[in-house]
Automatic annotation (TrEMBL):
Identification of the protein by name: Glutamine amidotransferase
GO molecular function, a single term: transferase activity
Protein source organism: Mycolicibacterium confluentis
One Pfam family matching this protein: GATase
GO cellular component, one term: cytosol
Origin organism lineage: Bacteria, Bacillati, Actinomycetota, Actinomycetes, Mycobacteriales
InterPro entries: ChyE-like, Class_I_gatase-like, GATASE
Matching CDD domains: GATase1_1
Keywords from the named record: Glutamine amidotransferase, Transferase
Length: 253
């Protein structure tokens, strides 16, 4: 990775992997990563894995890989997983094994905890779920020292919502953040491989889009949708997006 450079333009694009089949949510995720990362359209390429097989990925073609969140959980019962989910998880596992082996720049948002955690031997289960909406995140000592969180206060508000989480991390993985109800809100493997349980690419407007997209997906009672949107609007979600920008700036090559 290179040092900070606020006006740096990546010579190689970033790759955004999406598992959101809902077109509005997927498009909003792409726009958010571009906006918070300071990326032009030709600097961020998106593959919607639920629609298109990943194919062969040459990591040397990219500055870094970003994985968005979505409705999948690696801890779903095997018999409940669709053929698409099984394909996506298999493709991601192979790619993440290469990413970890090379210590290649990676930022996994929410679903990244489960997928990356599985590859490195973390315990990923349903012990620490959090409801959809705002969450107060606290950096660990390692998180405060990590360049991914440059400019982020020790305690900050973010947006999230998840059914599964990492209960324990293996030796070698570094816990970077926590919340009251979830002990692993972010972790690092090696120098360049990251996952966050909260959504650094999500603001209140994006939350409203996703609440509508997944209103009937079982994440929350549909009648609470407006309350969730209002709760997101009431919090100052202004620091978590720095994580996306820090990742892009440091990894551009």
């Amino acid at each position: 990775m290179t040092g900070p450079a606020a006006t740096r333009t990546p010579r190689r694009p970033f790759l955004l992997l999406s598992i959101r089949d809902d077109r509005a949510a997927s498009a909003d995720e792409y726009r958010a990563v571009r906006r918070f990362g300071g990326l032009d359209a030709d600097e961020l390429h998106r593959v919607v894995m639920t629609r298109t097989p990943l194919g062969d990925i040459d990591l040397d073609d990219w500055s870094g890989v970003i994985l968005g969140g979505g409705p999948y959980n690696v801890s779903d019962a095997p018999e409940s997983k669709s053929s698409t989910q099984r394909r996506v998880e298999g493709e991601l596992r192979g790619l993440l094994e290469c990413i970890v082996d090379r210590d290649f720049p990676f930022l996994g948002c929410c679903y990244g905890v489960g997928t990356l955690g599985t590859v490195i031997g973390a315990t990923v289960d349903r012990s620490f779920p959090e409801p959809v909406g705002p969450v107060t995140v606290e950096l660990t000592d390692d998180g405060r020292a990590d360049p991914l969180f440059a400019g982020v206060p020790t305690v900050f508000d973010a947006l999230g919502g998840h059914r599964e989480a990492a209960s324990t991390l293996p030796a070698g993985a570094v816990r970077l953040a926590q919340s009251a109800d979830c002990p692993v809100q972010a972790f690092r493997v090696g120098t360049n491989v990251y996952a966050t349980q909260f959504h650094p690419e999500l603001d209140a407007e994006g939350m409203a889009t996703r609440v509508e997209a997944y209103k009937h997906a079982g994440y929350f009672p549909p009648e609470t949708a407006d309350a969730i949107k209002a709760a997101a609007q009431a919090r100052h979600i202004e620091h978590s997006s720095l994580i996306v920008r820090n990742f892009v700036v440091r990894c551009s090559r």
